[in-house]
Amino acid sequence: MNILHQYTFQSLKVNRRRTLFTGMGIVISVAMITAVSVFASSFLDYMERKAVYETGDWELAYSDLNETEIQYLNTDKQVDHTFMVDDLGYAVLPESQNEYKPYWF
């Protein structure tokens, strides 16, 4: 056996209390690192599920497309679903509390 191993074992036998506390410290450190990793992973999963719930399950958004580009996307076999969103503009809100903004977008 190596002289370093012999010295290490001898030191561990002599200082049993310090060895025990060092082992417990290592176990607690590993448990804390594991807990933080699990917490971070579950938090990221929660944020992803929340975003899908609030905004929908979509992967890509285009803006300012012309009619031929829209037709190309609708007929593309790699695209599963498409939908269009358009702003209608402003509408007058008759009973508005704000006199500077008597409209609704």
TrEMBL record:
Tagged with keyword Transmembrane helix: yes
Membrane-traversing stretches: 20-40
Keywords: Membrane, Transmembrane, Transmembrane helix
Domain of life: Bacteria
Protein name per Swiss-Prot or TrEMBL: ABC transporter permease
